[in-house]
UniProtKB/TrEMBL annotation:
UniProt keyword Zinc, yes or no: no
PANTHER family: DASH COMPLEX SUBUNIT HSK3
Name used for this protein in its record: Uncharacterized protein
Keywords recorded for this protein, A-Z: Coiled coil
Length: 98
């Protein structure tokens, strides 16, 4: 008859074989690695948002650069209206005095 094969003993997790001080150090390393992963994930998400915002800003700058000539013309027309209104008001004031 065949003898039953002895079952291999399952190894206990490494953390239980460590001394208390080593166990604490191991847990801190694992905790810091987890914290680092979370931090990198957060930074990656922030970088993605920043990159998207930079693309939007670049598009806005392109539109503004195309519109700058129209903005200048609008400013000159607005200035001309103020000068004309000033001249009309001065003329009205002179007529009232006479």
């Amino acid at each position: 008859m065949d003898k039953p094969q002895p079952q291999p003993q399952l190894q206990q997790p490494q953390l239980q074989q460590l001394q208390p001080q080593q166990l604490q150090q191991q847990l801190q390393r694992r905790g810091s690695e987890s914290a680092k992963r979370k931090l990198y994930t957060s930074l990656n998400n922030q970088f993605a948002r920043l990159q998207q915002n930079m693309l939007i800003m670049e598009q806005n700058i392109e539109i503004t650069s195309e519109q700058i000539k129209s903005i200048q013309n609008f400013g000159m027309a607005h200035s001309a209206l103020f000068m004309a209104a000033n001249r009309v008001l001065r003329t009205d004031n002179r007529d009232d005095k006479n």
